[in-house]
Design brief:
Elements lengths: L10 H11 L6 E6 L5 E6 L2 E6 L2 E5 L12 H9 L1 E5 L6 H7 L9 H5 L3 E2 L8 E2 L4 E12 L8 E12 L12 H4 L2 E3 L5 E3 L24 H4 L6 H7 L8 H9 L8 H9 L3 H13 L5 H14 L3 H11 L3
Antiparallel strand pairs: 1-2, 1-5, 3-4, 4-9, 5-8, 6-7, 8-9, 10-11
The chain binds flavin mononucleotide (FMN).
The site of flavin mononucleotide has 17 residues, from strand 2 and helix 2.
């Protein structure tokens, strides 16, 4: 591995490693206003939330790497102590990027980006109409993290009002990640788009006390079919199912007359139920790869979050 002490390389290299390694990062699209009343809008991806009572967010308008000057967002925050943090969606990506050009303080990036300013309820800075999640904030503390080029400044802000577009909510009133279409920032010119292709649902460990990796049977850990992710998911159950019940489950399952070609077709569709029926037929026919076929079925089920089905098939596979 490349092992680096930050003092031995330039701050630009450190910045590039941080950008690529701490990623993807959410983007705070920050609206401020100068004491002369000039609006400012800029993105900051050194950003996150830190507690909900009170709701606190923080982002870092750092010192410019080029000339160690302070950014307009920093200056406005120090002067007025207010901002609005808007979330960035895929639909706004290029307009957000446009707003990050280093325009002089007298230039309004709402005008430059073509995004629409709308009044806030509590603070003076405007909200971005196109953003479906907006937070009116007050500066709690600005912490300087150094005085050199590229040094960060941590703007810690309390959210005093949320504005959430109803169209991004699910039926329980929670924000639906499939609807909000967030973008995150990676290193270089790369961004991440949150959509059905990039989102993955993972059960919350808080609801289950998993047996843990250490309690997985050896036949599972030594299988070359299961990935580390599969094993991690297998280990998130309260207890290992009874092998006798697993056997009864598999034996009572219907059989489909099929060949390996059909099995592979079911696999490519993620149809673990038909995979099991097909594997059973191939086992009866004496297929020499039967154990692998059952393990592939368990793998497919675990990847579809059908954990009981997966455990039953995995336990049965170990007996072949
Ligand atoms: C997606 C994205 C994320 C950015 N994140 C940061 C950041 O976390 N900190 C920072 O100082 N600059 C960041 N920048 C650069 C600022 O947006 C840029 O310097 C901007 O011109 C500052 O504007 P201002 O001087 O009006 O405040 C980012 C730019 C982009 C496009």
């Amino acid at each position: 591995m490349l092992s680096i002490e930050p003092n031995n390389v330039s701050h630009i290299e450190v910045w590039n490693y941080l950008l690529g390694g701490v990623a993807p990062r959410p983007i705070a699209f920050v609206s401020t206003i100068s004491k002369e009343g000039i609006p400012n809008l800029s993105p900051f991806s050194f950003f996150n939330a830190f507690g909900s009572n009170p709701p606190v967010i923080a982002f870092s308008p750092s010192r410019r790497g080029r000339d160690n000057t302070l950014k307009d967002t920093y200056n406005n925050l120090i002067e007025t102590k207010e901002c609005v943090v808007n979330t960035v969606t895929y639909q706004m990506l290029h307009q957000m990027n446009l707003s990050s050009c280093e325009y002089p303080p007298e230039i309004d990036e709402f005008v430059k980006s073509g995004l629409t300013p709308i009044d806030s309820d509590i603070v003076k800075p405007k909200r971005v109409k196109e953003s479906p999640f907006q937070m009116e904030c007050r500066l709690m503390q600005m912490i300087e993290l150094g005085g050199k080029s590229g040094s960060g400044n941590l703007a810690i802000c309390e959210v005093v009002k949320f504005h959430i577009a109803e169209y991004i909510l699910d039926e329980n009133g929670r924000i639906d990640p499939l609807k909000i279409n967030h973008v995150g920032r990676n290193g270089g010119q790369w961004y991440t788009v949150c959509n059905a292709n990039s989102l993955i649902k993972v059960p919350k460990p808080a609801e289950i006390k998993g047996i843990g990796f250490d309690n997985l049977p050896d036949f599972m850990k030594s299988s070359f079919i299961y990935t580390a992710n599969n094993l991690g998911r297998f280990a998130l159950v309260d207890k290992i199912p009874d092998p006798e019940e697993a056997k009864r489950f598999v034996e009572s399952y219907p059989i489909i007359e099929s060949d390996e070609y059909a099995f592979n077709m079911f696999m490519s569709c993620g149809d673990y139920k038909s995979m099991l029926s097909s594997a059973k037929y191939l086992l009866i026919k004496g297929n020499s790869k039967s154990r692998i076929l059952f393990e592939l079925t368990a793998k497919c089920a675990v990847e579809n979050n059908e954990i009981d089905f997966a455990w039953n098939v995995a336990l049965f596979a170990s007996t072949i």
